[in-house]
């Protein structure tokens, strides 16, 4: 965890996890970017990338050269509504508690980690004409 800005929390973080089966999962996030754009998650594979814009529920299939091959928007489950339904009428949770162990171990590691360090390097912003 790092902090690019003079704050008490992290604004830039990276995690590398080894999954069962030997696959590596890498995630990097920042709230310190010079420009704001819609947040997304990329799943990168040998044959291209799936990109999920999780605020708009759009999924793109991107070829290895960076060209968007296909795009679609999907309906999502609102998790608070799902939780309330599960408590009230005993509907199944969208994500069962038994399936959240890895996520909870990551959250625990973040909470118990030392305070974020100030990055040893910084990028100089340049003005565009």
From TrEMBL:
Gene3D superfamilies: Dihydrodipicolinate Reductase, domain 2. This is Dehydrogenase.
């Amino acid at each position: 965890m790092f902090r690019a800005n003079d704050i008490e929390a992290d604004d830039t973080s990276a995690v590398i996890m080894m999954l069962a089966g030997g696959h590596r999962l890498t995630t990097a996030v920042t709230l310190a970017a010079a420009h704001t754009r819609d947040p997304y998650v990329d799943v990168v594979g040998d044959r291209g990338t799936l990109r999920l814009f999780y605020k708009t529920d759009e999924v793109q299939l991107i070829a290895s050269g960076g060209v968007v091959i296909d795009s679609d928007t999907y309906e999502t489950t609102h998790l608070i509504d799902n939780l309330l339904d599960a408590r009230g009428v005993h509907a199944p949770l969208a994500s069962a508690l038994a399936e959240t162990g890895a996520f909870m171990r990551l959250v625990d590691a973040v909470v118990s980690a030392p305070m974020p360090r100030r990055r040893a390097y910084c990028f100089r912003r340049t003005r565009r004409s």
